[in-house]
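Figure S7 source data.
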Amino acid sequence: MSNPAKAMNYIDGRWSWPEGTAAIKSINPSDTREVICETPDSSAEELDRAVAAAGRAFTAWRRTPPPTRAIILQRAGQILAQRKQQIGELIAREAGKPLAEGCGDVQEAIDMAELAAGEGRRLYGDTAPSELPNKMCLTFREPIGVCGLIAPWNFPVAIPAWKSFHALICGNTVVIKPASDTPMCGAEFVRALADAGLPPGVINLVQGRGSVVGEAMCKNPRISLISITGSTETGKHVAAECGRTGKRVSLECGGKNAEIVMDDADLDLAVEGALWGAFGTSGQRCTATSRLIVHESVHDKMLEKLTAQAAKLRLGPGVEPTTDVGPLINESQCKKVLDYIRIGKEEDKATLVRGGVRATGEKLDHGWFIEPTIFTDVNRSMRIFQEEIFGPVLSVVRVGSLEEAVETLNDCEYGLSSSIYTRDVNKALWAVREIEAGIVYVNGPTIGAEVHMPFGGVKGTGNGHREAGKAGLDTFTEWKTVYIDYSGKLQRAQIDTDEILAKRD
Ligand code: UN1
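Tokens for the predicted 2-aminohexanedioic acid complex:
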């Protein structure tokens, strides 16, 4: 048997496997007999080496005009576009996503490169009048320094892209820690940037475990910002650690997203939205629909259509062109989802109407497949209503009015994405205002955010920062306010202003 491929570290412009470092195996979740690659179980010292390289590269990169930075990012986007199919297939193998979703993941990175490159000619600040004569006020966006980017496995190319393209266009240098389940995807993403001509040290990649590399990132005083997409538990831990060294920290954590279906909704559309939202990416998106809140007058009809359609979804390996739903990422996620299914069955009076078991079959027996699962008669006190499951499990709740629907949706610690299906513009707009979430869709599923719009959530989902869009620039920059006095004399703000006014009276 040939040696497995290696997903190495990339530090200061060089690919390397730190001497004497043990290997972590990356396994195909659709068929665990296949080893995709080996990756170094990097130490905290290796992370520190990457941070030092990023620190050395910072001054020159910060001084590089943003439109010049943009040329390199644009080139990276073009390289990703050339490699879209190849990287999409890698995502299908390493993360288990259906091929179309794998390619979509790469496309999201390409879109982000385009967006960030465009920002290279904007990065606008403000100009404002001064309260004093012959003086002006203006602001500039400035980079923060070395950014530590901790990425999850569910968008193994798009999420590193969201984080790093915005960081880089703003003049920061970065160290990325990809998820240990998808090291090769992380390496291929960084390879595109390296091939685009990013100077050594501007982007660095350190493979390994969160408990070692992620932890070392939080502790390293030369990192100025950590951006992490991960579980709420991990996010809170990272924020606490970063507090000690005074870092900015941007959290994109859990979700428990809900779709509301009102009595006047286009039911077929709402069913399609729920299926894609709940079972697309096997429910492993932080934006996944995991609660369906349905008006009682359409509840039974909706459920009938939903279960019939869910039964038609084809489970299979990511790389098979016919696959609608791929596997869970690994054994522990599979176990966690099965645990939640058990809890759902035991809880109160929830009814399991479909799925609830591991899927079997010739192409499924060696992977972490779980049947798309639907619970009904779920109420707000149940754990399957409140907690993030991150798998193909949908909990259906029956409500009697729009007010009750929105109140039910809001009765949860998370606030990332949400959706309402209704044909009534008044109901839709009322819900848009009342829903507590960072993202609200009207007549669309809870998944599918676009890169030029702010992405992030309220309540337990985040800590006030946004990724993507123009808002993403705020995460990766500091404001510098500049006052220029060309009066040639001392002017005292808040004091001389009174005198000027007095003279006018
Ligand atoms: C995530 O699951 O962390 O909005 C991100 C969406 C995707 C991004 C999901 N564009 O569903």
